[in-house]
Amino acid sequence: MPSKYRAFTFIEVITALAIVAIALAVLIRLHIFSINLTDRAETTTQAVLLAEEKMTEMLAQPLPKLQTAGSSERRGNHHFHWQTEITDLVTPTLVPLPSDLINPAQAGTQSLRDLTDFNQADLAPLRRIRIMVNWYEGRHQKQVSLTSYIADRHIP
For the chain, what is the domain count? Predict the structure, then answer.
């Protein structure tokens, strides 16, 4: 004889609870993953800000001295090691164009001829500034690197 009361069976309740438990476990795991990604993003942002700060200090100088310097800094919960390398940029030797490539009869060739009439020493000295910031995430070392070039701002 069928019952007049409709209810869930014990098996249906257990199955529903198992599904909810699995879904909650997945959501908690995703939340932890999200927190870890946010922490990594914050650390990388702090490293980039430190590199930009050091680059700004170097670019504020008229022509920074050739050097390699570095130090360590603690920002928030993270420990960063930064290094600055300032080196002369070696420009390639420019050679004049062969005269058979420059045809004065063509329009605009005078500018090509003018390009070949300069002294290599007239080029402003260029320096390469490279800032590297290192830190550890667990057992893995991470690095951010910024590179810029600066010319001597002294006009003769």
Answer: 1
What amino acid occupies position 82? W
Is pTM beyond 0.70? Reply is no
State the virtual CA torsion across 51, 126, 154, 61 in degrees, nearest 10. 20
Among the residues of the chain, which ranges form H helices? 10-59, 109-116
Domain containing residue 23: CATH number: 3.30.1300.30
Per-residue pLDDT tens over the stretch 15-33: 999 999 999 999 999 999 9
Q: Which of 126, 125, 129 is nearest to 58 (CA)?
A: 129
- Range of the structural domain that residue 142 is part of: 10-151
Determine contact, residues 133/143, Cβ cutoff 8 Å.
Answer: yes
